[in-house]
Amino acid sequence: MIIAVAVAGFIVIATAVGPISPSNGDDEAVKPEIPTGKSICANAPCLEALAAVVDAPDAHPEQATVHLFARRRADGMLVQTSSASPGVYHSRNWTERGGPIAGPGPSAIIWQAPTYPNEVQGGGAVVTVLGISASAASSGDIFLRHIGQGGAGTAGAPISFKYRIEMLGVPATCAIQQEQRFDFWVQARNGSDADGSATLYHQLSANGAWFYDGRWETDVVLQTSPSRPAAIASRPGLLCRNGRWKAWEQHLVVYDGDGAAWHRQWMQEPGPSQWGPWESLGGKYAKGTYPVLVETTAGSFQFFGLGSDEQMYSMTWTSAQGFGNRTTLGGGAFASVPAVAVSQGSGSERVDVVAVSKDDGRLKHKAIGLGVSMDEQWEDLGIVSNSAPTLAKVGLASMDIFTTAVDGSIWYAPARLSDMGRSGWGNLTWAPIQGL
C-alpha cells in the first residue's frame, strides 16, 4: 500500500520511489504496447529530438505545465502539445507552430519577456522555440517563434540575420531572467571563410530587441586568449547563472576537432564584464555529440559528455576551484547524449542522468547524490529509444521523461521521487502521445 501526503509543496510517498500511471486521455482504450526492435542509435549517437519547457507557478511548482515541442516526421512542421495536468498529456492534441524545420528537432526556452518598451507577447513568461529552417526559400536560417501564455504567439518565420551563415546544428539557448533576455548560440560556418571552418555565432534578445541589430556576434571565439580550440566541432553546452546583486555568468563548453572539451566563462563581476580565457578540459568525446551542462547549486554545475569510447563522463565545476577531475559514470557503452536534471527532496539533492544504452538501445537511468549517499547503479527504464531522452522537471521531486520509440512515435513516463537515499525510479509506466 502506498500512502502519499503533501509536504512542503511536493509529494512524499511511503515507498522509496513513486512512479505514477500516465494518462493520455484514452482511458477507455486498450493499453498500447511499447514498440520493440533495434534502435537506430546503434549506428550513430542519437541526439535530442524533442524540446520541453516548464511553466511553473512560483508558489506551487508542482502544478507546472510542461510544453513539449517536436518536428512532425511527415512534413517537418513544428508542433506543440502541453500537459493538461501534472503527468497527463492528451493524445491528438498537437498544435502546429509553423515551419518546416530541419531535423532532428527544435530547442526551446522559457523566459521573462518585457512589457515596455518592446513588448513581447504581452510580457511575462514567454516560450521561444527555435529550429533550423528547412524551407527552400530560407534553408539554413533560424526559425523562431514566441508563444505567450495566453495565445498562439507571433507568426513563426525564418529570421535572416545580416551575415549569411550555414547552420550546423540546433541552437543552444539560455535565459537571464533578471535581465529580461534570452541568448542563443549556434555552431555555423560562414561561406565566405576561405577555410570553411565552423565557429560559434551568438545572438541575444534583451528587453524585446535584438541586441546586435540583426548581426551575429562572434567575439567569444575571436577574443584574445592564451589558447583556444582550433575548430568548433559541436553545438555548445550552455549555462546561464544569476549571480549576486545583478551580476550573472554564462558558461560555454564545446568540443574541438579532436574531440577535446573547452570551457569559456563570461563574468559580469568583478568588473569589467568580459569573457575569460579559453580553458582546455581535455578528454576525447564522441563525434557528432555535444556537451550537456546542469546547475547543481548556486556555486556549481556539472558537465556530462559521451566519450569516443562510448563511456559516459562527468566533470564538476565550482566557483571556488573551477573544474575537478573527469570521472566515468560506468554502466557500459552508451549511444546518445545524456539528459540530466536535478531533483530535490528530504533535504537532499541528486542529479538524474538518462541515456540510450549501446548494447540494447534501451533507456538507462542513474542518480548521482549531492550530499547524500546512493548506490548509483544504472537501471533499465523499459523502452527502446530512437532518440536521446528529454527530461522535464515538475516541482522539486518530479520528472516527466520523453523519448521517441523505434517506430518514431512519442512516449512519456512520469516519475515521482521521495526517498533521496535510493537511486532507482522503479517500474515506470509508459504511454504514447498520439496524433503525429
From TrEMBL:
<dbReference type="Pfam" id="PF26607">
    <property type="entry name" value="DUF8189"/>
</dbReference>
<feature type="domain" description="PLL-like beta propeller">
    <location>
        <begin position="256"/>
        <end position="415"/>
    </location>
</feature>
<feature type="signal peptide">
    <location>
        <begin position="1"/>
        <end position="16"/>
    </location>
</feature>
<protein>
    <recommendedName>
        <fullName>PLL-like beta propeller domain-containing protein</fullName>
    </recommendedName>
</protein>
<keyword id="KW-0732">Signal</keyword>
<dbReference type="InterPro" id="IPR058502">
    <property type="entry name" value="PLL-like_beta-prop"/>
</dbReference>
